[in-house]
Amino acid sequence: QLQLVESGGDLVQPGGSLRLSCVASGFTLDYYAVAWFRQAPGKEREGVLCISYTQQVTNFADSVRGRFIISRDNAKNTVYLQMNSLKSEDTAVYYCAADLGLCYNGTEYYQYWGRGTQVTVSS
Q1: DSSP SS3 for 118
Q2: What's the gap between Cα 85 and its chain centre?
Q3: Is 27 exposed, middle or buried (0-12, 13-18, 19+ CB in 10 A)?
Q4: How high is the pLDDT of residue 53?
Q5: 92, 83, 94, 99: which is closest to 34 by C-alpha?
Q6: Which of 21, 70, 77, 76 is nearest to 50 (CA)?
Q7: Mean pLDDT score of the chain
Q8: Which residues contact 67 (CB under 8 A, 6 or more apart)?
Q9: Are the beta carbons of 37 and 17 closer than 8 angstroms?
Q10: Is residue 61 predicted with pLDDT exceeding 90?
Q11: Cβ atoms 35, 50 nearer than 8 A
Q12: CA-CA distance, 9 to 27, in Å (whole number)?
């Protein structure tokens, strides 16, 4: 069974940090682009960051530039999203998604999705 599982979401204070993980099972991520998306209540799902199979990083959201970092460890079949200087507007369910090749901004480009992990930024 091909599956992506996110973890690491939590309640954190503004200015804090979290690291999300996305682990693949049933397939290897070596040739896949993996993107992080997020969806806040009442809003559409939006792209955040993506890392291609060649390790090229694409930023989909200007609001996270300089604060969020995406990385991958193919040996662990895992992609990470390091989130620093968190703000209340970062509150959302965060999803990872994967598809072969390069990064594109749009949910329609990704075949495999996790179920999401909740990130809440609040004092």
Answers
A1: strand
A2: 16
A3: middle
A4: 94
A5: 99
A6: 70
A7: 97
A8: 83, 84, 85, 86
A9: no
A10: yes
A11: yes
A12: 24
Return the structure tokens found at 92: 């959302």
Which tokens hold the place of 96?
């990872």
CA–CA–CA angle 57, 63, 69 (5° rounding): 35
58: part of which helix (H) or strand (E)?
strand 57-59
What's the rounded mean pLDDT across residues 81-99? 98
Closest CA to 20 of 101, 92, 75: 92
Q: What are phi and psi of 2, to 5 degrees?
A: -85, 125
Torsion angle of C-alpha atoms 104, 33, 107, 1, degrees rounded to 10: 160
Residue 96's Cβ-count burial label (10 Å; 0-12, 13-18, 19+) is buried
Quickly tell me which residue has 């199979």 as its tokens: 53
Place of tokens 């993506």: 50
